[in-house]
Amino acid sequence: MNDPLFETLCRKQTLYTAWLKVKEKNTVGGIDQKTVEDYARNVDQYLEELSQKLIAGTYIQQPYREVFIPKKENEKRRLGLLTVNDKVVQTAVSQIITPIFEKSFLPVSYAYRENKSAVKAIRQVQHLVKIEHYTWLASCDIDNFFDNIPHAPLFGRLNAFLKSPGITELMKMFVMMGSVNYRKQWKNTVKGIPQGSVVSPILANFYLYQLDKLMMDKKYGFVRYADDFIILGKTEAQANEALNDVVQVITKQLSLTLNEGSAVVPVSDGFDFLGIHFKDGNIDLSETKFNRLREKLHDAAETGQGFISSKLTETIQGIANFYGKLVSQEKLNKLDIEIIKLLKKRWIRLNPNQTNHLPNQLQTIMLLAEANVLNKTAFLHQYWGIKEKSKDKTKTKKSIQSREAVLSRKHEYRKLESSGFDLAITQPGFFLGKKDHDVTVKYQGKLIREIPFINLKNITILCDGVTLSSNLIKSCAENKISIDFLGDNGAAYAIIVNPTFVNADIGIAQLQAYTDHKSFYLIRKFVTGKINNQLNLIKYYGKYYLSKNQELKTLFPDFSHKMKKLCADVENINPQSLDEYRLKLFAVEGQASSAYWDMVKVLIANKMIFNGRERQGARDLVNCMLNYGYGILYARITEAILKTGLNPCLSYLHKPDGNRLSLVFDLIEEFRQQAVDRVVIALIMKNKNLRELNGILDDYTRKTLSQKVIDRMNNFELFRKKECRFFEIMFLQARALVNFLTDNTKEYKPYNPKW
């Protein structure tokens, strides 16, 4: 078959060019949950396989992942998200066919086209009204346009227009492919083009070509942006004729329907188009659009985990790009005020005790009105309202109570959400299997529980005598759910993860660190991070127990001074050979740990006898609990390291030793205190019925401790100005290590939580 366009598509270089665009956008993935980052690790292999499948005619797109986003009022827009692999194919097709389609598209169409935009559409309407003196109009839009395009006429026109059977068949598949919702339920696509498909914008303009051509042939005033358009006439009769022609094309030829409200009115009455109100030759933001933008800003401000979310920044940038060029400074100023009000509410919720000053982060916020940009500090102070008036004390008190109620409910639902993240099995006799989209948990043949794969993050097996089906293991791998196996002492003897292989570039960077002094830097950071976190945990418990424990109170000042001095000593040790540097810093770390465990001994003295830290062969309750908790933490740190492409055997503080996962011991140091020590101390101080026998924790203690450690890992805390779950922080720190080693950042900051 002679099909040069399809042959171009099949070339690996074409696919690679498309991949670069997909990589640059870095948008959310599809049904396979594979990210752009995941794809990048083996991009050459994936593109080669893709090329071969296209050539052989065996390529089949995955279904779209169905998601819903807010549209207006209570409506939602359905989107279909593509896998990265399918985005590459659709992007490649789009890059090949766009120049061909563009040659036929007409100048009255302004959406989804290079050198066209919504701003230019607005300017064209202004030109038609003010310069060409069109005085009557009808504003129209098509009812659920994307979802209602019939396939038969679309495909018929596509066959006649695009002289490439191979690409035409692919585009048909793109359109007809079904979708899968969060429950993995299949939905057929019997009509419409999926919003989220790369080629849908091209097909949308292509399908409405007949409308564009008729309007131009009859010389009506006409401006179309996607399925929204304005029809203009120089007389009322001409405008009515144009509207009748539109209705005939839309209903008879395109088999679509106009939304209600399309009527001819005088231009002098004023009208709205694309969120802009036209009146007396002037334009400004329409009231309807202003209210929708307020809602959009509110949703964006509440999205994400930091004080100023990336979603809010993107939303403000989008408003500036379009409306900032068109609307009055008065309306932009109102939006600026709205932004600051929203951020103040969020700041108070995140930092209830720090409301009397202007946050430094506010200086980074983008403003819209020119005067506010030029006098940013004055504007921020004016609308942040740093000092509260005394007459508002009662109101402030009520708002704090309301805020506390909201925070309480937020905590309740976050806890409910995280209850489905982890499955821990602590006694023999259980069978774990798979049914549809759920993990099934059976005990002695009886169904105990069903857990959706979509929420589950980890399965932990804490005993012998548990059976897992191969179907379950396969589904866990597909859904990136790790399975950890821990022995009676808490040590991980097996970990099942999605096949993740170390990244060659990262591995080379890890090796280079041994020769470019990065290794010395990291050793120093791992040790000081651990010492600071040991000090901070004692400070944390000091808030509650210094007034009750006289010995702790007496020892604390010297302990604090010693830990700070040891951190300073670390900074002053000059690196020589790597082995010698390790020995010197281990000596300092040993002094700090000895002082730390002495303080723990004093802290829990009234509850438990604790003679000091023992690792292997421990037979006392405290050390057994610590070792058991560290085993759970060890497995999670291992997973974080593997997921970021690091080689777990190439370490710095701990000397590499064959196939020993020594990097895990490096990274775990900064997490031990908050992930495990804090949990163990809390359980002991609460007089829980904890027991061990011959160095083995009893079933109740194992179950209680493992659940508390898992709960701790699912808790939120403020990290780098964002709210993150603890297990996410472990991954972020592994990622930070990668970024430092590969020169994406100039420093590595240890995890150092507030106390």
Describe the structure.
This protein is 52% helix and 13% strand. It folds into 5 domains: 1-103 and 163-178, no CATH class; 106-150 and 191-285, Reverse transcriptase/Diguanylate cyclase domain (Alpha-Beta Plaits); 286-383, no CATH class; 414-496, CRISPR-associated endonuclease Cas1, N-terminal domain (Ribosomal Protein L15, Chain: K, domain 2), CATH 3.100.10.20; 504-742, CRISPR-associated endonuclease Cas1, C-terminal domain (Four Helix Bundle (Hemerythrin (Met), subunit A), Up-down Bundle). It has 28 helices and 23 strands. The chain starts with a helix and ends in a 14-residue tail after the last helix. Strand 18 and strand 19 (492-496) form a beta hairpin. The longest helix is centred in the last third of the chain and has 28 residues, at 518-545. It has 755 residues and is an alpha+beta fold. Helix 11 (209-217) packs antiparallel against helix 12 (236-253), helix 13 packs antiparallel against helix 14 and helix 24 crosses helix 27. The strands form 7 sheets. A 4-stranded mixed sheet has the order 2-1-4-5, with no helix packed on it.
